[in-house]
Amino acid sequence: MPPKLNKNVLILGGSGLLGSHCVQYFSKNYNVYWTYNTLKNIVPNGIKFSFFENLESLSEIFNFTKPDIIINAIGLVSVDTCEINKKHAYDLNQNFVEIIVSTLEKLKMTRTFLVHISSGGVYGKRIQGKDTPWKETDNLNPLSVYAKSKIGGEKNALNYMGPKLIIRSDFYGINDLQRKHSLLSWIIHNAKNKIPMEGWENIFFSPISAKKLSKTIDTLIQNNLTGIFNISSTNYCNKFEFVDVACDTIKIKPILKTNEVVSKIRPRYSVLSCQKVKSKISFECDWKEELKSYIRRHYS
Ligand SMILES: NC(=O)c1ccc[n+]([C@@H]2O[C@H](COP(=O)([O-])OP(=O)(O)OC[C@H]3O[C@@H](n4cnc5c(N)ncnc54)[C@H](OP(=O)(O)O)[C@@H]3O)[C@@H](O)[C@H]2O)c1
Questions:
Q1: For 30-86, what is each residue's pLDDT tens digit?
Q2: Which of 10, 18, 180, 186 to mutate to test the pocket of ligand 1 (most atoms within 8 A of CB)?
Q3: CATH code of the domain in which 67 resides
């Protein structure tokens, strides 16, 4: 086993889908601490933290863990819930980031490297011209409260006077810590239980596994790269193809119908360009190969 780097990493939202993958990945090489909110399992180095119940404990957590790196993976992710509970969305996705930044600055911890997880959803809908993969420099045209609150979170992270990295991504995975459904666990559950599913043929995206994303975040940190980065697969698919390949990998024939979805709050085309990350580090991610290998590793 390689020696641990003598660095502390604090993963805010370590019980979530991405956070739990980051905890697993970063624990190989760093001293990892992480927070949870509603998680019931007791797991080493987990710290209870709730924005609505003990926000004031954030300074104590920072003082106790002395993080060289913070990864903020706390968020309200459901696009529909964000529309219904706007305050909750802005509190978690936007205002909390301002509080992280002001707490770090107040504690004079501005050498801490802050990684903030944003979303590929911030790009929204192209106003002019045809669809091409979104670049970090493109204008944002958010369609939902979720996307607007994530843009607010990015702006707050960019105001941090220390080193900061903002990740725009669209990831999948299975959270082994808790039973909350993710896109992938929902697909596999439906396929196994013969529950009919619709595969949206008109929604295009560039999904990456939470595992590969965690690894890529580490590489960016190790290379001291800061600013905004898209991290996604380097090719793309529609949601129907994604469901089809996932089910094919577990060798279950799903009850799958093609369909087209019309939604005012979900972008139809959220394919991200990885040109920037590819120009800085060695990075390649074929969505189909990555999805198959993630599922095989998970179920082996
Ligand atoms: N999922 C995606 O496809 C996707 C795509 C692009 C970007 N993102 C962004 O990536 C980040 C992580 O997403 P995810 O899918 O991993 O989310 P997730 O599985 O829902 O995890 C959210 C995390 O936030 C914690 N949390 C929720 N409410 C909290 C509160 N009031 N106080 C403190 N902690 C709270 C949760 O703790 P408990 O679970 O213990 O309650 C959990 O650790 C989010 O910022 C999201 O916007 C997600």
A1: 999 999 999 887 778 899 999 999 999 999 999 999 999 999 999 999 999 999 999
A2: 18
A3: 3.40.50.720
Question: Residues enclosing ligand 1, CB less than 6 A?
Answer: 13, 15-19, 36-39, 49-52, 73-75, 77, 92, 117, 119, 150, 169-171
Nearest to 48 by CA among 36, 38, 61: 36
- Domain range holding 28? 8-173+208-233+273-287
DSSP conformational letter for 141: B
Question: Is 128's pLDDT higher than 90?
Answer: no
Per the structure, how many domains does the chain have? 1
Could you tell me the pTM of the whole model? Answer: 0.96
Starting at the edge strand found earlier in the chain, the sheet holding 113-117 runs: 46-48, 31-36, 8-12, 69-72, 113-117, 164-169, 227-231
CA of 117 to the centre of ligand 1 (A): 9
- Given a contact cutoff of 8 angstroms between Cβ atoms, the answer to whether 93 and 166 are in contact is no
